[in-house]
Amino acid sequence: MATNFTKSGANNSPQYQMSGVPFIFNDDAPALSSDPDDCLEVNFDYVTKNIFVENLHISNNLRFSFTASGSIQNGPKNYIVVSPGETVKYDFRCKSLFFMSSAGTVTPFTLVAGLTTIPASNFPVLTGSINGVSAFDGVG
User: Fold this and answer.
1) C-alpha torsion angle, residues 59, 57, 140, 136 (rounded to 10)
2) Model confidence band, residue 94 (pLDDT cutoffs 50, 70, 90)
3) Measured CA distances, 47 to 9, 43, 75, 101 (Å)
4) b vs e for 10-40, b when ≥16 Cβ sit within 10 Å of the residue's Cβ?
5) Rounded distance, CA 27 to CA 91, Å?
6) Mean pLDDT along residues 46-71
């Protein structure tokens, strides 16, 4: 009897039909910067099914994106803005998210994700370019 079962991949539809495994993360998004290294990166061990992001600040907007360069001050503006006190929900498949405040001070937030059992290593890297050439406008 074979014991070397294949692992689920990014396009395994049943993984996205069942309830996700809960993941909860609270932190402060760093102050607005033009340096991608200043973004707060949240990595998931498994591919997400859906995400909820709540901005806990009373006046700062929160940015999040799929690449570090997507959230920066002078970047391509490939980010989602969450208004103060707002919670957003999206059905996104990803293995990491990048957070940054839209102001000069930190912005606290809560991230809740439903995870599949697809290992993050079986999901492609989301990028706005391949070898320096723009390939996926809107990603980063």
Assistant:
1) -90
2) very high
3) 9, 10, 26, 24
4) eebeebbeeebeebeeeeebbbbbeebeebb
5) 22
6) 93
Cβ contact 90:82 at 8 Å: no
Whole-angstrom distance, CA of residue 37 vs CA of residue 41? 9
Residue that the structure tokens 């391949």 belong to = 130
Residue pointed to by tokens 């102050």: 31
Four-point Cα dihedral 36, 42, 43, 48, nearest 10: -120
Confidence of residue 133 (pLDDT cuts 50, 70, 90): low
Give the predicted TM-score (pTM) of the model.
0.86
Q: Nearest-5° angle of CA 140, CA 91, CA 32?
A: 40
Q: How many CB atoms lie within 10 A of CB 54?
A: 17
3-state secondary structure of 14: helix
The pLDDT of residue 30 is above 80: yes
- 3-class SS of residue 136: coil
